[in-house]
Design brief:
Oligomer: single chain
Number of helices: 3
Structural class: alpha+beta
Number of domains: 2
Order of helices and strands: EEEEEEEHEHEEEEEEH
Shape: elongated
Helix content: 10-25%
CATH topology of the largest domain: Elongation Factor Tu (Ef-tu), domain 3
Biased composition (Basic residues): 182-191
Main location: cytoplasm
GO biological process, one term: rRNA processing
Protein name: Ribosome maturation factor RimM
Largest sheet: 6 strands, antiparallel
Strand content: 35-45%
CATH superfamily of the largest domain: RimM
InterPro entries: PRC_barrel-like_sf (IPR011033), PRC_RimM (IPR056792), RimM (IPR011961), RimM_N (IPR002676), RimM_N_sf (IPR036976), Transl_B-barrel_sf (IPR009000)
Number of strands: 14
Length: 200
């Protein structure tokens, strides 16, 4: 349902497309988590910038890991010590380098910050992040108070995404929202206590 880019820098019109996760071996190679739909595409961008835009990186894909990461070589990075310095560095590209999203597709960058309401009009908060843990995209919603809310980003549960109006409408199934989970637990407790009284 979404185009797989992550963590925007909207003010600078840049989008985060990858992040170095750790050094790999002793020759200066790194593990890279790509956020593009086709992971290898991250090496095709003309300019990959650091988060503060002070550095640029020339990345070459060497191989793939079994954990969805790429093994890459970065021009000018020789040896494990140099590679370790890049751990956690996020890589950005200009939004102009990205193709337009298709129908029912959205760049993660455009979802961050949208207000979230239920189909009944209840405000839940704002979209804080978008994750893919392997079973599909999840919206992380930051409420005004309370714990973070995770919602599957599917057409059934998120029927409306209106970028222009800055809103997302969700239709969560029973038990998905934190307060509904608490109510469900209370109902179970009441039933259990009632059963005990009946046994006496």
């Amino acid at each position: 349902m979404s185009s797989n880019t992550h963590n925007p820098d909207k003010d600078q019109e840049r989008v985060c497309v990858a992040a170095f996760s750790s050094a790999h071996g002793v020759s200066g190679a790194l593990r890279l988590k790509s956020f593009t739909e086709n992971p290898d595409d991250v090496a095709e961008f003309s300019i990959l910038q650091s988060e503060d835009a002070s550095k640029t990186y020339d990345v070459e894909v060497v191989s793939h890991t079994g954990k969805g990461e790429l093994i890459v070589k970065v021009a000018g990075v020789d040896g494990r010590d140099a590679a370790e310095l890049l751990k956690g560095e996020r890589l950005y590209v200009s939004r102009k380098e990205l193709p337009d999203a298709g129908d029912e597709e959205f760049y993660h960058a455009d979802l961050i910050g949208l207000t979230v309401k239920t189909s009944s009009g209840k405000s839940l908060g704002t979209v804080r992040a978008v994750f893919d843990f392997g079973a599909g995209d999840m919206l992380e919603i930051l409420p005004k108070e309370g714990a973070l809310i995770m919602v599957p980003f599917t057409k059934a549960i998120v029927p409306i995404v209106d970028i222009e109006k800055g809103r997302v409408i969700v239709d969560p199934p029973e038990g998905l929202l934190p307060e509904e989970k608490k109510k469900k637990k209370k109902r179970k407790k009441v039933k259990k206590d009632t059963a005990k009284e009946g046994d006496q």
